[in-house]
From TrEMBL:
Family membership noted in the UniProt record: Belongs to the LysR transcriptional regulatory family.
GO annotations of cellular component type: protein-DNA complex
InterPro entries registered for this protein in UniProt: LysR_HTH_N, LysR_subst-bd, WH-like_DNA-bd_sf, WH_DNA-bd_sf
UniProt keyword Cytoplasm, yes or no: no
Domain of life where this protein originates: Bacteria
Keywords: DNA-binding, Transcription, Transcription regulation
Protein name, as recorded: LysR family transcriptional regulator
């Protein structure tokens, strides 16, 4: 518990500016004895003299007092800013799961800025756990993500259903198939994401089908996964499907849809269920939903 309150800091700043306890007391609408007692109490707590008070002379601020007054002014300015700040002045932060951010985040921000020009928007990518945490803590206002790590405390609207894909080396025995099932894929070494919650998600997919695939590698990024695949290290699975058949390092690969119904995942727009009702939120949610209707 703090021993020195904002009111105490107001007293200190007022006395430093007036160089008089009497004048400061009048300005603060408190009695002179009360103000003197408060200043003495602060000096006692801090163990330093803030002012030198001599009868018949103006108050002198000590070197320590000057440093304290400067910090007190900053503290009071911050308190005033917090008290009078408006939520309307901050940008709406749109979060996006990092794997799909390159496809959606920039177009959505561009659309929102055109449709709601009076509001500023900012994008932020993240992983499942960090997006859920930032939504709960008010650091992110809306998040575009799969429903992994978001509990019942979040409101959501479904945007689309996504069919995952398998990445295979160009000469893989399954590369000439039109699509693949999870059962077919599980017979080959796999390359999966190392993202914390994704690990459990894919494990549950295979467990539901009583499959126990061998995980050859885990990749921290989509392009690392595709590079591993192109070099024959296994079959990759992802819900993101980059255009092109070449990995960053020039390796050739094949991309096939996964036809198992249980593998399909829904993409949502999330926001905190504890968020205060805001008439400005609905147009943003509607604009994002309309965007996905136009691209599907």
């Amino acid at each position: 518990m703090l021993s020195i309150t904002l009111r105490h800091y107001e007293y200190i700043v007022a006395v430093a500016e007036a160089r008089s306890v009497t004048a400061a007391a009048a300005r603060l609408h408190v009695s002179q004895p009360s103000l003197s007692v408060a200043i003495s109490r602060v000096e006692e707590i801090l163990g330093e003299r803030i002012f030198l008070r001599r009868k018949g002379s103006v108050i002198v601020v000590t070197p320590f007092g000057h440093r304290l007054v400067e910090r007190a002014r900053d503290l009071l300015a911050l308190a005033q800013q917090i008290e009078h700040s408006s939520e309307a002045s901050r940008p709406v932060v749109v979060g996006c799961f990092e794997d799909i951010a390159p496809w959606y985040l920039a177009p959505i921000l561009d659309l929102l800025q055109r449709q709601v020009p009076a509001q500023a928007f900012r994008g932020q990518e993240g992983r499942f756990a960090s997006l859920a945490r930032d939504l709960a803590e008010g650091k992110v206002d809306l998040a575009l993500s799969y429903d992994i790590g978001f509990d019942g405390g979040f409101e959501r609207v479904k945007l689309r259903t996504v069919v995952p894909v398998a990445f295979l080396p160009q000469r893989h025995p399954l590369a000439d198939q039109p699509s693949l099932t999870l059962e077919q894929i599980a017979e080959h070494p796999l390359i999966l994401s190392s993202e914390g919650l994704s690990v459990g998600y894919f494990q549950a997919l295979f467990d539901a089908l009583s499959l126990a695939p061998r995980i050859a590698h885990r990749a921290s990024s989509l392009e690392l996964m595709r590079s591993f695949v192109a070099h024959g290290m296994g079959v990759g699975i992802s819900y993101s499907n980059p255009p092109g058949r070449i990995s960053y390092d020039g390796g050739a690969l094949v991309t096939l849809p996964i036809s198992s119904p249980s593998a399909a995942a829904d993409l949502f727009l999330f926001w905190s269920g504890l968020r205060a009702e805001s008439p400005d939120l609905q147009p943003v949610v509607q604009a994002v939903a309309d965007f996905f209707r136009s691209v599907v």
